[in-house]
Amino acid sequence: MMKRLYLALIWIGLFSFWVMPVQAAEIPQEFDTWTSMSTTDTLKAWMIKFNKPIDSGTVNKNNIYLTDDRNNPVAATLTLSKEENSVIIKPAKAYTVGNKYWIFVTGGITGKDGIKQLSQPIAVPFEVKGKISSVASSYSEIITSFKVTTSSDVYSVKINSTPMHYQGDNTYTLGISGLKQGGKVTIYAYDSSGKLLTSESYQI
Protein backbone atom coordinates (compact mmCIF):
# COMPACT_ATOMS: atom_id res chain seq x y z
CA MET A 1 0.00 0.00 0.00
CA MET A 2 1.33 3.43 -0.94
CA LYS A 3 2.57 5.39 2.03
CA ARG A 4 0.72 8.71 2.39
CA LEU A 5 1.85 11.93 3.96
CA TYR A 6 0.22 12.99 7.19
CA LEU A 7 0.07 16.61 8.22
CA ALA A 8 -0.56 18.73 11.27
CA LEU A 9 -1.28 22.36 11.91
CA ILE A 10 1.02 24.13 14.34
CA TRP A 11 0.53 27.37 16.24
CA ILE A 12 3.64 29.33 15.33
CA GLY A 13 5.91 29.55 18.35
CA LEU A 14 3.52 27.72 20.66
CA PHE A 15 2.87 24.03 20.19
CA SER A 16 1.92 21.35 17.69
CA PHE A 17 -1.22 19.29 17.72
CA TRP A 18 -3.16 16.72 15.74
CA VAL A 19 -6.74 17.45 14.71
CA MET A 20 -9.49 14.84 14.48
CA PRO A 21 -11.93 15.03 11.55
CA VAL A 22 -15.59 16.05 11.85
CA GLN A 23 -18.38 16.60 9.35
CA ALA A 24 -19.22 19.99 7.82
CA ALA A 25 -22.10 20.25 5.36
CA GLU A 26 -20.84 23.42 3.67
CA ILE A 27 -17.62 21.76 2.44
CA PRO A 28 -17.60 19.53 -0.68
CA GLN A 29 -17.73 15.83 0.11
CA GLU A 30 -14.25 15.14 -1.20
CA PHE A 31 -12.76 17.25 1.61
CA ASP A 32 -11.98 15.78 5.03
CA THR A 33 -13.15 18.51 7.45
CA TRP A 34 -11.21 18.77 10.70
CA THR A 35 -12.16 20.05 14.15
CA SER A 36 -12.58 23.81 14.39
CA MET A 37 -9.86 25.82 16.13
CA SER A 38 -9.65 29.39 17.41
CA THR A 39 -7.16 32.22 17.82
CA THR A 40 -7.14 35.75 19.20
CA ASP A 41 -4.23 36.75 16.93
CA THR A 42 -5.65 38.66 13.96
CA LEU A 43 -2.46 37.98 11.98
CA LYS A 44 -2.08 34.34 13.03
CA ALA A 45 0.29 32.35 10.83
CA TRP A 46 -0.35 28.61 10.61
CA MET A 47 2.17 25.89 9.85
CA ILE A 48 1.12 22.84 7.83
CA LYS A 49 3.60 20.09 8.59
CA PHE A 50 4.11 16.96 6.47
CA ASN A 51 5.96 13.79 7.43
CA LYS A 52 8.49 14.01 4.58
CA PRO A 53 9.78 16.59 2.07
CA ILE A 54 7.30 17.80 -0.53
CA ASP A 55 7.74 19.06 -4.07
CA SER A 56 8.17 22.85 -3.88
CA GLY A 57 6.50 23.18 -7.27
CA THR A 58 3.20 22.02 -5.79
CA VAL A 59 3.27 24.61 -2.99
CA ASN A 60 1.03 27.22 -4.55
CA LYS A 61 -2.24 29.07 -3.98
CA ASN A 62 -4.22 26.44 -5.87
CA ASN A 63 -3.15 23.68 -3.48
CA ILE A 64 -2.98 25.55 -0.14
CA TYR A 65 -5.23 28.54 0.44
CA LEU A 66 -7.47 30.50 2.83
CA THR A 67 -11.13 31.49 2.50
CA ASP A 68 -13.66 33.20 4.72
CA ASP A 69 -16.85 31.46 5.84
CA ARG A 70 -18.63 32.53 2.64
CA ASN A 71 -15.97 30.85 0.51
CA ASN A 72 -14.42 34.17 -0.55
CA PRO A 73 -10.64 33.91 -1.11
CA VAL A 74 -8.44 35.49 1.56
CA ALA A 75 -5.06 36.75 0.33
CA ALA A 76 -2.19 34.91 2.00
CA THR A 77 1.51 34.15 1.58
CA LEU A 78 2.99 30.64 1.53
CA THR A 79 6.50 29.89 2.78
CA LEU A 80 8.14 26.47 2.41
CA SER A 81 10.54 25.52 5.20
CA LYS A 82 14.24 24.89 4.58
CA GLU A 83 13.65 21.18 5.23
CA GLU A 84 10.79 21.29 2.69
CA ASN A 85 8.46 19.37 5.00
CA SER A 86 6.27 22.24 6.23
CA VAL A 87 4.48 25.28 4.81
CA ILE A 88 3.58 28.47 6.68
CA ILE A 89 0.41 30.21 5.52
CA LYS A 90 -0.01 33.80 6.70
CA PRO A 91 -2.80 36.28 5.87
CA ALA A 92 -1.83 39.35 3.86
CA LYS A 93 -3.92 41.51 6.19
CA ALA A 94 -5.59 41.07 9.56
CA TYR A 95 -8.48 38.68 10.02
CA THR A 96 -11.76 40.17 11.24
CA VAL A 97 -12.52 39.44 14.89
CA GLY A 98 -15.63 37.28 15.25
CA ASN A 99 -15.33 35.76 11.78
CA LYS A 100 -14.69 32.16 10.77
CA TYR A 101 -12.08 31.14 8.19
CA TRP A 102 -10.92 27.97 6.45
CA ILE A 103 -7.53 26.54 5.51
CA PHE A 104 -7.67 24.21 2.50
CA VAL A 105 -5.01 21.69 1.47
CA THR A 106 -5.87 19.95 -1.80
CA GLY A 107 -4.77 16.63 -3.24
CA GLY A 108 -2.35 18.45 -5.54
CA ILE A 109 0.47 18.36 -2.98
CA THR A 110 3.10 15.78 -3.94
CA GLY A 111 6.26 14.44 -2.35
CA LYS A 112 9.67 15.01 -3.91
CA ASP A 113 9.24 11.61 -5.54
CA GLY A 114 6.34 13.06 -7.56
CA ILE A 115 3.69 10.91 -5.89
CA LYS A 116 0.48 12.59 -4.77
CA GLN A 117 0.57 12.32 -1.02
CA LEU A 118 -2.88 13.16 0.32
CA SER A 119 -5.50 10.47 -0.07
CA GLN A 120 -8.15 13.12 0.61
CA PRO A 121 -8.03 16.95 0.50
CA ILE A 122 -8.37 18.66 3.87
CA ALA A 123 -10.36 21.65 5.16
CA VAL A 124 -9.60 23.15 8.59
CA PRO A 125 -11.95 25.79 10.06
CA PHE A 126 -10.87 28.35 12.64
CA GLU A 127 -12.50 31.31 14.37
CA VAL A 128 -10.89 34.62 15.30
CA LYS A 129 -12.02 35.59 18.79
CA GLY A 130 -11.74 38.87 20.66
CA LYS A 131 -9.68 39.41 23.81
CA ILE A 132 -12.92 39.74 25.81
CA SER A 133 -14.86 36.53 25.21
CA SER A 134 -18.01 37.20 27.23
CA VAL A 135 -19.55 39.62 29.74
CA ALA A 136 -22.40 38.85 32.13
CA SER A 137 -23.99 40.93 34.88
CA SER A 138 -26.55 40.59 37.65
CA TYR A 139 -28.22 43.88 38.64
CA SER A 140 -29.71 44.94 41.96
CA GLU A 141 -30.30 48.36 43.49
CA ILE A 142 -27.56 47.64 46.03
CA ILE A 143 -24.82 46.12 43.88
CA THR A 144 -24.28 44.97 40.30
CA SER A 145 -22.15 41.85 39.89
CA PHE A 146 -20.05 41.38 36.75
CA LYS A 147 -18.36 38.31 35.29
CA VAL A 148 -15.92 38.67 32.38
CA THR A 149 -14.09 35.90 30.53
CA THR A 150 -11.10 36.67 28.32
CA SER A 151 -8.47 35.11 26.11
CA SER A 152 -5.44 33.59 27.85
CA ASP A 153 -3.11 36.50 26.96
CA VAL A 154 -5.14 38.96 29.06
CA TYR A 155 -3.38 39.64 32.39
CA SER A 156 -5.79 42.05 34.09
CA VAL A 157 -9.22 43.61 33.57
CA LYS A 158 -10.86 46.79 34.80
CA ILE A 159 -14.44 48.02 34.74
CA ASN A 160 -14.25 51.78 34.37
CA SER A 161 -11.29 52.47 36.70
CA THR A 162 -11.84 49.56 39.14
CA PRO A 163 -9.70 46.40 38.83
CA MET A 164 -11.60 43.12 38.59
CA HIS A 165 -10.73 40.06 40.70
CA TYR A 166 -9.16 37.09 38.91
CA GLN A 167 -10.94 33.80 39.66
CA GLY A 168 -8.87 31.48 37.48
CA ASP A 169 -9.64 29.97 34.08
CA ASN A 170 -9.45 33.41 32.38
CA THR A 171 -12.43 34.62 34.44
CA TYR A 172 -12.76 37.92 36.34
CA THR A 173 -15.49 39.13 38.72
CA LEU A 174 -16.42 42.41 40.38
CA GLY A 175 -19.31 43.96 42.29
CA ILE A 176 -20.01 47.67 41.85
CA SER A 177 -22.55 49.69 43.82
CA GLY A 178 -24.43 52.76 42.69
CA LEU A 179 -25.01 51.73 39.08
CA LYS A 180 -28.34 52.11 37.31
CA GLN A 181 -30.09 49.53 35.18
CA GLY A 182 -29.67 50.49 31.53
CA GLY A 183 -26.49 52.39 32.32
CA LYS A 184 -23.17 51.67 30.64
CA VAL A 185 -19.71 50.71 31.86
CA THR A 186 -16.44 50.31 29.96
CA ILE A 187 -14.38 47.13 30.26
CA TYR A 188 -10.61 47.32 29.71
CA ALA A 189 -8.30 44.33 29.16
CA TYR A 190 -4.51 44.60 29.65
CA ASP A 191 -1.48 42.41 29.02
CA SER A 192 1.21 41.59 31.61
CA SER A 193 3.11 44.82 30.87
CA GLY A 194 0.02 46.95 31.48
CA LYS A 195 -0.57 47.64 27.80
CA LEU A 196 -4.22 48.08 26.86
CA LEU A 197 -5.25 45.23 24.56
CA THR A 198 -8.88 46.15 24.01
CA SER A 199 -11.86 47.92 25.53
CA GLU A 200 -15.58 47.67 25.01
CA SER A 201 -18.74 49.30 26.29
CA TYR A 202 -21.31 47.19 28.13
CA GLN A 203 -24.90 48.09 28.93
CA ILE A 204 -26.25 46.82 32.25
UniProtKB/TrEMBL annotation:
Domain SbsA Ig-like: 45-126
Entry keyword set: Signal
Membrane spanning stretches: none
Pfam families: Big_5 (PF13205)
Gene3D superfamilies in the record: 2.60.40.1220
Signal peptide interval: 1-24
Protein name per UniProt: Ig-like domain-containing protein
Organism of derivation: Desulfitobacterium chlororespirans DSM 11544
